[in-house]
Structures are given as structure tokens and as C-alpha cells.
Amino acid sequence: MTDLEMVPNASCVAIGGYGLLIEGEVGSGKSSLALALIDRGAVLVGDDGIALERRGDALWALPPPNITGSLHVRGVGIFDMPCAAAQLSLSLWLEQKMNYTVLPVPRNRMLEGIVLPQLSLRGDDPYLPLRAESALAKYGLPLAGTMV
Description:
The chain is mostly beta strands and about 150 residues long. The chain has a single domain (about 5-95, about 105-130), classed as P-loop containing nucleotide triphosphate hydrolases (Rossmann fold). It has helices at about 30-40, 130-140, and strands at about 5, 10-15, 20-25, 45, 50-55, 60, 70-75, 75-80, 85-95, 105-110, 115-120. The strands form two sheets. Strands 1, 2, 3, 4, 5, 6, 9, 10 and 11 form a nine-stranded mixed β-sheet that branches. The chain has a two-stranded antiparallel sheet with strand order 7-8. The longest helix is centred in the C-terminal third of the chain and has 12 residues, at about 130-140. The chain is globular, with a radius of gyration of 14 Å. It starts with a strand and ends in a 9-residue tail after the last helix. Keywords: Kinase, Transferase.
């Protein structure tokens, strides 16, 4: 088996099969967003680190080998939950303080030679789960082997 590339301090969930990578500084709300999205039907891929694997022209997020199925809920503890791998479609970068723009332009995030769109959102936004789902629908890459 080859060594997997790791994205430290990141969370990831799958929404309808589409992988949403959640990045940001420590304390920015990554695990909280993952928990809120799981409550809305998403599936955990991983928390506090994500393993990456390139499969052809697609990038897959895998549960981290050492903490598979664990989600840290701040102030409550660590919970075990089902998890799955997912093809990455979008990266969100959570900011502590930022102003939203009317027409945001996603940046490019290069991982394992694959360009992934990345959008910044406020980690303390009460509507963050809805914005994250909307961002995935609008800016996410299609899954490999699917028609657009």
C-alpha cells in the first residue's frame, strides 16, 4: 500500500456522495460545521485530518487511519460515528472575520495535482450549514463518470 497524503486539521463530509473538505485555522468551526451537516444528512469522512488518494482524474478523501469514525464535539467530547470515503468536489475555508461579497469567486486549491475549487465562508455564521450546501451545489466539481 502506498502512503496516503494527509490534510492535517481538516474535516470532511459527504453530501449526496459529493465530498466537502472543510479547512481553516484551529477553532474556526470545522468540526462544528461537519456536525451540523451530519445532522442534516451528510456522512462523516473524517475529522482533525483527512487522507487523500488520487484515482485517475479524481481526488478521494478517506477517513484518517488513526482516528477513523471519530468526530470531536467541542465542549462535549469525541463521538464514534459511521464514516465513508468520498470523491472531493469542493473545499471550504472557514474564516473568523470576513465580509461576504455579492459575487464570490472561488480560488483554486491544488491537492495531489488536482485543482479543487475553494470558497471562504465565516465560521461563526448561523446559516453556515445552508451556505455550505449551497456552495457545494453551485461550485462543486461533478463526480467522475457523471454527466453535467
